[in-house]
Amino acid sequence: MSRRKVSILGATGSIGQSTIDLLTAAPERFEVIALTAASNVVQLAADAKRLGARFAAVADERLLPELREALAGSGVETGAGLEALAEAAAGEAEWVMAAIVGCAGLEPVMAAIAAGKTVALANKEALVTAGALMTDAARRSGATILPVDSEHNAIFQCLAGQDIERVSRLILTASGGPFRTRSAEEMARASPAEAVAHPNWSMGAKISVDSATMMNKGLELIEAHYLFGIPSERIDVLVHPQSIVHSLVEYADGSMLAQLGPSDMRVPIAHTLAWPERMETKVVRLDLVAAGRLDFEAPDPGRFPALRLARQALEQGGAAPAVLNAANEIAVAAFLENTIHFGDIARFVEQALQTMNEPAPATIAEVVNLDRRTRDRVRVQVAGIAA
Ligand code: NAD
Ligand code: MG
Fold this sequence. Notes:
Elements: E1 4-9, H1 14-25, E2 30-37, H2 41-51, E3 55-58, H3 64-70, E4 77-80, H4 82-90, E5 95-98, H5 106-114, E6 118-121, H6 124-141, E7 144-147, H7 150-159, E8 167-174, H8 184-188, H9 192-195, H10 205-213, H11 215-228, E9 235-239, E10 245-251, E11 256-260, H12 266-274, H13 288-291, H14 305-316, H15 320-336, H16 344-354, H17 364-386
Parallel strand pairs: 1-2, 1-5, 2-3, 3-4, 5-6, 6-7, 8-9
Antiparallel strand pairs: 8-10, 10-11
The protein binds nicotinamide-adenine-dinucleotide and magnesium ion.
Nicotinamide-adenine-dinucleotide (NAD) binds next to helix 1, helix 6 and helix 10.
């Protein structure tokens, strides 16, 4: 059997490292072509050497000399900047993991899609900002988008072999994050350390804060709409604190299919790596007797306004999802830098949506511009309250 050629965009992050862990355990199945990172040259070079990658690219161009030096004599080729990321995405690999965080991943993902790759998509912000443009491009090029996000991967598995016309509802489960049982007053003053301490999952800082505000579930609502073509009113959110049921699909006859598994991202990543087959993993199995119970509750729209804002942006369409995402990225970064309070994040997002006056972007270049303009606008507002 020939080995599947794979590349990872965002190899040094949480999802990137989980992917590398699976590749390391199955060298007979996978050949690593390219790895990319924002700035962690040391990790990038070490992994590229260890995995025998052909190409390593760093986003920050100033770090190219350092990367070259770290890989001197290894035979691994090097590159830097957005073009090098696009080259990694569109190169020889058949399967590309899109695991850059934020809209920064959009252009590399689009390069992989334009090249007709099988794209394992973790980078939900790219799909949120460019939804229809991305799925249209995949249709044109013949690229396959496989969802890595645990909820969407669960739904993808529950849809296999079924008639999408007979789906009555998609139900996205949400852990509720670290503040599920906190009062609004406690949440308003929460520190970055408290917000990133997720009860069930170990993830990058940005998505951890998104889980605490539940903007993560809002972004996932938009993500589900674009991945599966189901309208907003038929996508529900259900809080499930144990993170065992990763999502559900309800069919016209009243059946509900769910996917269960341990809260370990290597499970959905392995599903996309081996798809349409299955592969072995060493992941600790889910013990349902030890888990004992599964709880479900409705999300609280009062304490988690981000959910309402995301649904509103999806229903409004046009520029709204990209504006929502850009404002959220800036607000989350400001919160992580202790510039604004936790409770301000949703306020900045709401303000950005209320004051936006932008046409629907018709091309990826227009999405990138809209994203930049919105970031600049929100940065000025953040600086206003910080001053
Ligand atoms: P992370 O912060 O741990 O890693 C992000 C990766 O992107 C790193 O390799 C970093 O070097 C790279 N990167 C960051 N900024 C960049 C830039 N401007 N240009 C190029 N590369 C850049 O994030 P993560 O938790 O691994 O999440 C990655 C994506 O996967 C996010 O979109 C997140 O929402 C999604 N996701 C993550 C998880 C999880 O469990 N971590 C689960 C579901 C979805
Ligand atoms: Mg998720």
